[in-house]
Design goal:
- The protein is of the alpha+beta class.
- It folds into two domains: about 180 residues, GAF domain (Beta-Lactamase, 2-Layer Sandwich); about 230 residues, Phosphatase 2c, domain 1, CATH 3.60.40.
- About 40% of the residues lie in helices and about 25% in strands.
- It has nine helices and 16 strands.
- Strands 7, 8, 9, 10, 13 and 14 form a six-stranded mixed β-sheet that branches. The protein has a five-stranded antiparallel β-sheet with strand order 2-1-5-4-3, with helices on both faces.
- It is elongated, with a radius of gyration of 35 Å.
Length: about 425
């Protein structure tokens, strides 16, 4: 046998082995370059762009797209972010729902040589310019976090199994780094939101009375304990003139930052109406119209608004859907102040009513938000009006500050280990002489 014929098979084997070695060296170089490029950044958009560009270069493709899955959505096919890179002038492609659904089910690399004739995607409409597709999953801890897809190998040839294997390795190497970048961005956003909430809480605290007014012959007290960092309860003392003081306590529907913003709006409105010397009925009526026109239909505020005349010893009030305040006489008789109407903001116009009562020496007025009466213990039993009435009756000889402190202590004792679910706000007015 000629020597040349004996060498041919060996030569072919060596050439194939050299080709595989060159391919392996190229792949290692690609992976090394990608690792250096994406590990230097914590910006997810930059990382995704780098991954797509390196992937296009690695498999000689025209276009690529990374689609991230929205893990917070109840719909597993909903996507959160798309990042696309194209090396051609064609319109950029989007990962279609059929491919995304296939990835959710199979979570493995996919090579499509002829999309329109592929039995796995029968009935799917493909863009006419799509000739061949590589699609690989981005998986972190066994969970699909995204999909990397490239389209159309250049020079009109089809993708090979080597291309699919390399793209899968690139995706596996990139998935955790990309997820870390996303988590880092989420953490920064969360910290920024926390700081904004702290600032909002400080602003809201500054809107509460910094000092309790001193009125001869009367004791006033007020306290607000939000369930979250910011809340929807508010109380205020607004001087009208030398002998008159407006007192209000409001409770916005909902909790947190949206409720606090609405309450700030209402406080400004109430103060503006008080300063023009409007009666309680007029003040609540105008505030109701303004609030209705400036808020969405589901938002409303329960409000107790009154004007104390320390010269005439009268209290003129309007109760707009609020918890009925307790008016306790020196003899211990209790009356609930109900006159008023609907909660503020429920209807554009409503005929609110007002009433005037006389305050005798030692009379006590206690105004609360529903966070007091509806406070629950671990057995989901509410604190209730009965317990509240008993504490007020037992403590009525104390100062206004002491009465409020004892009510809060009673609520805390009742709630025990149960978390505070709603804002707690109280105001006490006591005539001392």
């Amino acid at each position: 046998m000629p020597i040349a014929e004996e060498l041919d098979p060996r030569l072919s084997t060596l050439q194939e082995e050299n080709r595989r070695l060159r391919r392996a060296v190229e792949e290692l170089s690609i992976l090394n370059d990608l690792a250096r490029a994406i590990s230097a950044s914590l910006n997810s958009d930059e990382i995704m762009g780098t991954i797509i560009r390196r992937s296009l270069r690695a498999v000689n493709a025209e276009q690529g797209v990374i689609t991230l899955v929205d893990k917070r959505s109840s719909d597993p096919s909903k996507t959160l972010v798309r990042a696309m890179v194209s090396s051609s002038q064609q319109e950029q492609f989007h990962l279609n729902q059929a491919l995304l659904g296939w990835m959710h089910l199979n979570k493995k690399p996919l090579l499509i040589h002829d999309p329109r004739s592929d039995e796995r995607f029968r009935g799917v409409r493909w863009d006419e310019s799509i000739r061949t597709v590589l699609c690989v999953p981005l998986i972190v801890k066994g969970e699909l976090t995204g999909v990397l897809t490239v389209y159309n190998k250049k020079a009109g040839v089809a993708f090979a199994e080597d291309d699919l294997r390399l793209l899968a390795i690139l995706a596996a190497q990139s998935a955790q780094i990309m997820e870390n970048a996303r988590l880092n961005e989420h953490e920064k956003l969360f910290l920024k939101m926390q700081e904004e909430v702290r600032l909002a809480a400080r602003i809201q605290s500054d809107l509460l009375p910094s000092e309790i007014p001193q009125i001869p012959g009367y004791q006033l007290s007020g306290k607000n304990i939000p369930a979250q960092e910011v809340g929807g309860d508010h109380f205020d003392f607004i001087p009208v003139d030398e002998h008159r003081m407006a007192i209000c306590l409001g409770d916005v529907s909902g909790k947190g930052l949206p409720a606090s913003l609405l309450m700030s709006n209402l406080q400004a409105t109430l103060r503006s109406q008080t300063f023009v010397n409007a009666s309680p009925k007029e003040c609540v009526d105008r505030s109701n119209t303004l609030l209705f026109r400036s808020t969405s239909p589901e938002k409303f505020v329960t409000l107790f608004y009154c004007v104390l005349d320390s010269h005439q010893h009268t209290l003129t009030f309007t109760n707009a859907g609020h918890e009925f305040p307790f008016l306790i006489s020196k003899k211990g008789d209790i009356r609930r102040l109900q006159t008023g109407g609907l909660a503020v903001g429920m209807m554009e116009s409503f005929p609110f009513a007002e009433e005037t009562v006389t305050l005798e020496p030692e009379d006590l007025l206690v105004i609360i938000s529903d966070g007091v009466s509806e406070a629950m213990n671990p057995d989901r039993e509410q604190f209730g009006d009965q317990r509240l009435s008993e504490i007020i009756a037992q403590q009525r000889n104390g100062t206004a500050d002491q009465i409020i402190d004892q009510i809060i202590a009673g609520v805390r004792t009742h709630a025990g280990s149960a978390p505070q679910m709603d804002d707690i706000t109280l105001v006490a007015v006591k005539r001392t002489g």
